[in-house]
# Entry
Amino acid sequence: MKKNYFYLALAMTLLTGKGYAQEPCATSDVHNEFLKKSESVGIFERMLNESTASYIASHSEHAMTSAKTTAAHSDTDYYDIPVVVHIIHNYGSELVSDSIVHVMIDQMNAFYNAQNNLSTIIPPFVPYIGNAKIRFHLATKDPMGQQTTGITHKFSYLTYGGDDQAKVGQWPPRSYMNIWVENVIGRGIGVGTVLAYAVLPPSAEAFPYSDGVISIASRLTDNNTIPHETGHYFNLYHPWNSGAGVGEVCGDDEVDDTPPTKGHFSLCRNPQELYDTTCAFNYFKMYTSASGSVDSLVNYPDTTNTQNLMDYSQCSQSMITKGQVWRMRGALNSNIGGRNNLWDSANLVLTGALDPYPDMVPVPDFVSRQGTSPISEISRFTYPNSYLFFTNKSWRDTVTSVKWTFSNGAEDPTPVHTSVIDLRTRFSNRFSEPGWVDIKMEVEGNNSGTGTKEFKKIVFVADNEGRDPAGYLQEFNEDGDRDKWPTFNFYENSNKWQLANTGVYDGTSMMYQGFDTRTGLELLTNTPIGDYDDMYSIPFDLTSFGSGECNLNFFFAGASKTASSDNINDSLTIEYAVNKSQSWKTLKVMKKGELCNNGATSEAFVPTSPSNWSPMTISIPTAARTDYVVFRFRYKPGGIPAGSNPVTISSGNNFYIDRLNISQWTADVSTVDMTNADVKVVPNPTHGDAYVVIKASGSTTADIVVSDITGKIVYTTTENLSSNTSRVKIPHDVIATQGIYLIQTTTGKQVSTNKLVVY
Ligand SMILES: [Zn+2]
# Structure
């Protein structure tokens, strides 16, 4: 049934496309992109084709007799290949078990030793069935010489179509065949139609960071996809290799016993397709000797090899021809792409490829989610006595029991899970004490021992009561309660919320590291695009605001890396959730110029002047004015969409946020001095005029005295007050000198002193 689904998807694409189908294998597209990126790829391709021709000439029975030489490595030998499988996952279905990987390796070995079911190969091609004699082994030693099962796990957003950028954690490609596993391949328009792709050896030589095979997880064991990509990995082309899409024009793959073809998309059930003579009629090859005379003539089948592993026909049984075996051997004996080092005896020792497969202790791992959240959403923020759901994701061995230890007054601090259902199914837990939660897992493997891991500060429990925001100002300095504003760098990369030693006034603020620090070759993998990172506020009680003005205020300083506004795709989403729920409602999305108030800079942005900071005021809706509301700040780094796909170049830069508060005043007013609620000076800092804003006080006049930092009076005025809020101007010319001024405001019997910063 799964195959039917696949072909339905392809048929849809064929019908809707413009004659150029989105193909299930993107190897040709990727190779063409590499050819465009570097002319060395074309040079390597010619060199490898030439050395392959010469290898075949000296080994194949169809090659001229006189040129045959005695090669050190005879054509009957087996080639052993060390393999490492990297599972790039977000704890979804793409997080396949080790046993799936083992089945995949078994299938590769079957195809490459002619041990797959070949009983329905049509008679004309039976004589051409090749046995590649290539054996695949999961490595048992990693690049550091440590023991391994040859399977790695990487928790990453890149599983959603990161493609080449998802090829993180590559092991040296001349020593290991790297295979990556994603949830979805994102290449091209039709996301979801591409199943996998490989990097041909000439591209691998020029772009070693990309070298390997990448596949969607659901195709690891379908019997065709990975063996097909493995053929590309050893330099096989698609049989039509025409430069056009499959089924369009006749082409040839530089292998003699795979007749020219247009290629096929089908279920391989149609006899006409199995005996398709299009392009192949009257196909033969003449082989000449060194003197130019005909050495031999071979009349190959006059029908296409639809059942070939490298066609898209995806027949339930498919073959590799003898000629393809020769071509792969040519690649295996060339240093272009380093395939000749893989099976080298010294490399087999270093990678432990031929050593017994180890039984290693499990690696403890888990995922926590809300009960209702989508599978892609990891949750590590919760409320006292609210349920959070935990699922055991330990791996590297068959797990027989898990002992969990939770801090923070967990409801059931030491549940031991031993049943199969318990080990796989999520269970809920809740915490009575606020603050960071530590979790310890002790995971027992099947005869291998116990793996233990402590996850420190992995979950945060908010305070139980909402705080009255009157007088509250979050400046992220050590005197405040910044520890109660948790930040989460889910994917443990360099893009994250972190404290910064620059701020509006006090030299501290919270910064989102949006500046992409990768350079040079590092840009080939691990893009931050697709990442997101969260910061949460403390809970507030906003009931006192009633239906009056109620604003979320802060100062911010941002910039972009790209000068083109169209290309700024970073965003900061500010949300709220009330009454200890996880139902997050969007309050505001800051993007483009609003997010990047300091324009573009190619350097990592650091605010150095008060003028870099802008006030932001967001009106808080009535629905949020409950006795318990939390704000979430989710930053998503963006990328420049033009050019390559997937996007590799990030657009954003560092973003700073400071002086967060909730007030009836706007940001420029409210952050000056929260204790003087009746008198404010705005804007502050200022570069021009300033205003003293005075709430109705019952007094009809106000006396204002402005003095500089030395105590010298620079301005005085007496103003009549209205019955509402009044604004009294302090002209720029009296505060023209940069520095700090004190403003004393007397209304009736009340005296307020405010600090004003002029830059
Ligand atoms: Zn392919």
